[in-house]
Amino acid sequence: MIYFEHVTKKYEQSEGEKTEALSDVTLHIKPKEFVIVVGHSGAGKSTLIKLINREIKADEGKVYVGGIDYSELKKRDIPYLRRKIGVVFQDYKLLPKKNVFENISYALEVSGVKTKDVKIRVPKILELVGLQKKAKNFPRELSGGERQRVAIARALVHNPRILIADEPTGNLDPRNAWGIIEILLRVNQLGTTVMMTTHNQDIVNKLKKRVIVLQNGKVLKDKEAGAYEA
Ligand code: ADP
């Protein structure tokens, strides 16, 4: 599903120096896996996500997602690719002037889905994230956990094959954090590959999923479910 082969990504710093955000990373994430990526700030987690989402390109090595070789990807195919990859961020990124329904329907409308189909699809996704009753509320009227649920719902509108959640519980208290994790698990059970980053050791320990540890742009550990020790 996601395959990195000796991937290196460098960023140019102000003095013309280059830092390697990712150095010679090789990893393989299979379809329907649930993977946790951990690592200190600056370890390369966001760079990994941006490479998968094709926001940035690798300097060396190969990135394949869903069988597509990114080095051969045409610009015009990127919007299509992005629909297959849902992304959720720590700070939700909701549209403040749109209500919950509209925050989700907007993503469908901009890609040309018919109103009739939007009206069928949005309630189904709201149900999946447990927010049927909040469809008419605005983001400011929601708790952090509810906002994150809206963000997940929006990321799922195109029925992506991969859901990437970048620190999805970073701003939430433990109870809301677990509510979000439960949704990610459900989405995964329905067949979507899930990759999440987290700093929360409790979540890592309790989930017992594969953990990829990044350090200074390298894969320090990559352990299968249940084998991870802090
Ligand atoms: P993480 O998400 O684990 O905190 P990042 O992938 O954001 O790590 O960053 C990895 C390294 O790349 C860090 O040293 C960071 O300073 C550097 N970096 C990230 N983005 C940029 C950028 N746009 N320009 C220059 N350096 C960057």
Number of helices: 7
Gyration radius from CA atoms, angstroms = 18 Å
CATH first level: Alpha Beta
CATH superfamily: P-loop containing nucleotide triphosphate hydrolases
Could you report the average pLDDT, rounded to the nearest whole number? 94
- Series of H and E elements: EEEHEEHEHHHEHEHEE
Number of domains: 1
Write out the strand line-up for the largest beta sheet, numbering strands in chain order. Answer: 6-7-8-3-9-10
Describe the structure.
- This protein is an alpha/beta fold and 230 residues long.
- It has one domain: 3-Layer(aba) Sandwich (Rossmann fold).
- It has seven helices and ten strands.
- α3 (100-109) crosses α4 (115-128), α3 (100-109) packs parallel to α5 (144-155) and α5 (144-155) packs parallel to α6 (174-189).
- Bound molecules: adenosine-5'-diphosphate.
- Adenosine-5'-diphosphate (ADP) binds at residues 11, 19, 21, 39, 41-47.
In short:
The chain is of the alpha/beta class.
Key words describing this protein structure:
single chain; 230 residues; alpha/beta; Rossmann fold; six-stranded mixed sheet; four-stranded antiparallel sheet; 7 helices; 32% helix; globular; binds adenosine-5'-diphosphate
Q: What's the topology here?
A:
Elements: E1 2-12, E2 18-29, E3 34-38, H1 45-52, E4 60-65, E5 68-69, H2 78-83, E6 85-88, H3 100-109, H4 115-128, H5 144-155, E7 162-166, H6 174-189, E8 193-197, H7 201-207, E9 210-215, E10 218-223
Helix pairs in contact: 3-4, 3-5, 5-6
